[in-house]
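[job 4471] stage=fold_predict status=RUNNING
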Amino acid sequence: MSVRVITHIQTKPGAAEDFKVTWDRKRYDDVAGLPGCDQYELFQSALEPERLYILENWESRSAYLSAWKIIR
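[job 4471] inference complete, writing structure tokens
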């Protein structure tokens, strides 16, 4: 069974763009390239730009748990 994880990030006013740049450079390749990661994307609210969401889809619970062991 696949696993979907949604993480909500609330940034301070004006800090969302900096977060997005840092996330793109550092985090995306680290996680998206892990075995079992089918999707890893960052979304930004159109109505509240300080609200960001990371959506992760993993092929299985074991793949998700294994990823935590690798990235810690």
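[job 4471] summary: The longest helix spans residues 16-32.
[job 4471] exit 0
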